[in-house]
Amino acid sequence: MLMAHPAVLRDLIGQYETLRALNAQDGGEEAQRRLADVSYTLCVVTGTRDADAALIAARHQLPGARVTDDSVLTAPTA
Questions:
Q1: Which of 4, 5, 37, 53 could form a disulfide with 48 if both were Cys (CB 3.0 to 4.6 A apart)?
Q2: 46 within 8 A of 62, measured Cβ to Cβ
Q3: What pTM did the predictor assign?
């Protein structure tokens, strides 16, 4: 399987997280389109079908990722 360069993954993750933090899904047409494009690209480069799975897969493909990291399964603490 081909894997995206770590710099590409970091950039896509950063763009996705920024757009989500800015609530792009509720924003204007351009913001929604950009979020859809980044989500789609993350899915393509990680071989997944939804943005959440793509984000997890992208993070696990980065150098230094802990393979046994189960933080996605635990509830966040405030």
A1: 53
A2: no
A3: 0.76
Angle at CA of residue 13, ends 12 and 16, nearest 5°:
85
CB atoms within 10 A of CB 35: 21
Q: Give residues with Cβ within 8 angstroms of 56, minimum separation 6.
A: 72
The string of pLDDT tens digits covering residues 48-66 is 999 999 999 999 998 876 6
Three-class HEC string of 2-58 = CCCCHHHHHHHHHHHHHHHHCCHHHCCHHHHHHHHHHHHHHHHHHCCCCHHHHHHHH
